[in-house]
Amino acid sequence: MSNALPPSDPTPVSSRCHALLPCAGTGSRAGTPLPKQYQPLAGRPLVHHTLAALRGVARLDRILVVLAPEDAHWPGDVDGVEAVRQGGATRAESVFNGLLALRERGVPDSDWVLVHDAARCLVTPEEVSALIDACAGDPVGGLLALPLPDTLKDEAGGRVAGTIERRHKWLAQTPQMFRLGELLGALQATRATGFEGITDEASAIERTGQRPRLVEGRASNIKVTYPHDFALAEAILRSRA
Q1: What's the pLDDT tens digit per position in 43-86?
Q2: Cα 6 versus chain centre, distance
Q3: Among 77-81, 110-114, 178-182, 221-225, where is mean pLDDT lowest?
Q4: Where is this site: Positions MEP for the nucleophilic attack (predicted)?
Q5: How many domains does the chain contain in total?
Q6: Could you give the CA distance from residue 57 to residue 60 in angstroms, rounded to a whole number?
Q7: Mean per-residue pLDDT over the chain, rounded
Q8: How many angstroms separate the CA atoms of 94 and 42, rounded?
Q9: 130-145: string of b/e by CB count within 10 Å (b at 16+)?
Q10: Is 186 part of a structural domain of the chain?
Q11: What are all long-range contacts of 139-142, with beta carbons under 8 Å and residues at least 24 apart?
Q12: pLDDT value at 7 more than 80
């Protein structure tokens, strides 16, 4: 049986936008009893803060969450959010499956998809809107990112092996915004190798020879990863409230 994708549909270029949230990870580095996306944060599961920010963006036509098939923590009906239990072994596989699910729901390949990390719960509707503004007319698409503010060191054996020039270096964030058909095709091209080397959506697009646009975000848009990140995220959420 062929793994080839069906042909892209010929729908004219559209300005509609959809959010896709891979939410199938276990968050092993977080050291929490629950998968980190469900860990309580400021009185709510972490992912609820993420979804609240996305739901605050009026230009998003839909929000699709990709869950692990065995997920027992998803609360069920969440207003304005669709969920599919098609999460994969890797983030890239979950995104790939989510893109297929969007296509199956009638989303044309010319629509924009904003892929966002479930654990980036501090993103704001303003940041997401800024990304849409910057990329809606772009031939490739782009991502939120932050110019590297600190000195960057190379390492060998736990010791500094050199200092890396930080000019023109950016920290990739999410959302990352690309046309559904182009992103699906870029991921399909790496599927046979288990999406090897694909650490985000931009890296898949880069493999096709295209250069995504960098849209400057905010330092607060962190990905909650380690135990101490929860305290920082909670402090920021409470300060906003």
Answers
A1: 999 999 999 999 999 999 999 999 999 999 998 778 899 999 99
A2: 24
A3: 77-81
A4: 166, 223
A5: 1
A6: 6
A7: 91
A8: 27
A9: bbbebbeeeebbbbbb
A10: yes
A11: 140/178, 140/205, 140/210, 140/211, 140/212, 140/213, 141/112, 141/176, 141/177, 141/178, 141/179, 141/182, 141/183, 141/205, 141/212, 141/213, 142/176, 142/177, 142/202, 142/212, 142/213, 142/214, 142/215
A12: no
Instruction: Please state, in angstroms and rounded to a whole number, the distance separating the CA atoms of residues 233 and 41.
Output: 8
In a domain, 10, yes or no: no
Q: Measured between alpha carbons, how far is 88 from 67 in angstroms, rounded to an integer?
A: 9
- Structural domain harbouring 161: 17-240
pLDDT value of position 77:
79
Quote the tokens at residue 192. 């046979």
Residue 113 has pLDDT above 80, yes or no: yes
- Is residue 109 domain-resident? yes
CATH code of the domain containing 149: 3.90.550.10
Answer yes or no: is 11 within a domain. no
Task: Please tell me the pTM assigned to this model.
Answer: 0.90
